[in-house]
Amino acid sequence: MVETIDTGITGAEEKDNIQITQRAIDEVKKIKAENSIGEDYGLRVGVKGGGCSGLMYNLGFDAEAREDDRVLDVQGVRMFIDPKSLFYLMGVELDFTDGLNGRGFTFNNPNAARTCGCGSSFGV
Question: Which domains, ranges and CATH numbers included, belong to the chain?
Fold first, then answer.
């Protein structure tokens, strides 16, 4: 069973936030430690145009939040989400998998009307 970490946000704002599983938190911390990425860096979670279904997920590290970013802090992992991406990421769960079908971060998006086989592209 996947454990989703409580961001401490409830009510109407809760649906606006991305959830992150304990496995994903652990992997982000591991990547930061292995690559000497500073503690002040955050995980930028976003969406950009492209892919088979029209939109693609985007992950990376960023030194600081931008002016309009939503900033979430879950167990010491800061996430930066720009307003445009937040619209498509409402209610999404970020997980990390290391199984027979591959290793990597996965997005469980209840708002996606269609996805492609690669798992990195979706449409609404």
Answer: 16-29+43-123 (2.60.300.12)
